[in-house]
Amino acid sequence: MAKLPEALVNAALPEVGVMEVNSSNCGPRVDEYKAATQLNPKLGWPWCAAFVCWCVKQAMDATQTKETKTFKRPRTAGAWDFENWSKAQDASTSTKKPHRNDIKPGDIVVFTFSHIGIALSAPDKNGNVKTIEGNTDGAGSREGGAVLKKTRHVGKIRSRIRFTV
Question: Which of 43, 60, 95, 147 could in theory staple to 86 by disulfide, Cβ–Cβ 3.0 to 4.6 A?
């Protein structure tokens, strides 16, 4: 496994259980996630992509992966926009859409319902992938207010983005 995918999982795991305050899309830790994007972190807006941006930043710091002219970390607050971000990078990322069940731990998974998370597993025999997602809940909402481990069927995954460094 490349260094960055493993570091991405390691950054995300300790965040499980973080919750926003009063269904506001804000809170001390949530605002830190949102600060990893180009949007104002003090305003209340859906933060699933911000969580992934923050995790990527932490993983890059942990592995001493530097930005270059051809590789920039994601700063988008849009789940589907991650595909555009990845395609604009050098060979440090690989986007697969459709993913054809080619999902590994540490991949960024973009869902069909404008949501995003980090894969913790490859698909099991039933086509389910374990993930960590921000701004979700027990029912699997994309507006749920917490960082949680989830199990999602590959049919709900639009694309996968893999770090190759």
Answer: 95
* pLDDT tens digits for range 38-56: 999 999 999 999 999 999 9
- 14 contact partners, CB below 8 Å, separation of at least 6: none
- Which pairs count as long-range contacts for 34-40, CB under 8 Å and 24+ apart, including other chains? 34/77, 36/75, 37/75, 37/76, 37/77, 38/75, 38/76, 38/77, 39/77
Mean pLDDT of 70-80: 97
Q: What was the pLDDT predicted at 8?
A: 98
**Could you tell me which residues come within 8 angstroms of residue 15 by beta carbon, excluding any fewer than 6 positions away?**
29, 51, 55, 132, 134, 147
Q: What is the pTM of this model?
A: 0.97
Number of independent structural domains in the chain = 1
H helices of 14-155, in order, are: 28-34, 48-63, 81-87
CA separation, residue 74 to residues 68, 100, 129, 130 (Å): 13, 24, 23, 22
Domain extent at residue 107: 3-163
